[in-house]
Amino acid sequence: MQSPLSLQVRAPDATATRTHARLSVRLREETRLEHKSVEAACGLPGAVRHLSDYSSCLLDFYGIFSPIERHIATFTECSYLGLSMQKRARVPYLQQDLRLLNVDPDSWREAPAQALPALPQFAFALGALYVLEGSTLGGQIIMSALQAQLRIPVDIPGGFFAGRGEQTGPLWNEFRDALDVYGQQYPEASADVIVGAKRTFDAIGNWFNENNNRFSS
Ligand code: HEM
């Protein structure tokens, strides 16, 4: 693990800045296929027809986001990039929605260790954080489709899919800026960030595919 101090003092590599695309741009371009696969695997909004499907879907997100988020938070470098994991955590929203839906906490299952992405260093964890952060972007579209599709006379607890409300854009831009600073300072670590993101997308997609039979037929 790089020392926090080296993260603060190292000067940007000017050559790399000129000759390489920004890390945030590379991530978007190089994980496009993985995003498509995850979209297909989570089956949203089509697979969710009843309120029980919605709970199952949130349980699936909880099961894989929870251990990944905890793992990312062990890397102190997040705060040196100005990223507060407390502020960015998605799992509290999942927990809140599940509680409001009265889902028995005994059924809140976490993915086993072998199903999790390998994130041995901070660079890989930053790629995983990119995936979790990005999941705030599509949520509002998903939520309005779900509201229309479920046609039930109750408000669905939608804290998770609401993303960050009006703060979604600003917080995403702040995260992308932090990614690009990291990419400038550690161009040699960019490939690991992208691998971390791909591993995370794959782990999430596999987890959803494994749990697909939870949805009603
Ligand atoms: C059916 C489900 C999904 C839909 C419809 C969807 C939709 C979207 C949309 C519309 C954007 C672009 C937003 C923008 O450019 O302003 C986006 C970005 C993104 N989504 Fe999803 N998404 C889905 C599922 C997920 C999941 C489950 C994850 C991760 C766990 C994820 C991760 C990301 C990431 C990382 C980005 C950022 C791409 C970039 O770098 O610009 N998405 N999504």
Automatic annotation (TrEMBL):
Record-level Gene Ontology MF annotations: heme oxygenase (decyclizing) activity
InterPro entries: Haem_Oase-like (IPR016053), Haem_Oase-like_multi-hlx (IPR016084)
GO biological process: one example: heme oxidation
Annotated Gene3D superfamilies: Heme oxygenase-like
CDD domains: HemeO-bac
Pfam families: Heme_oxygenase (PF01126)
Origin superkingdom: Bacteria
Full protein name: Biliverdin-producing heme oxygenase
Organism: Massilia polaris
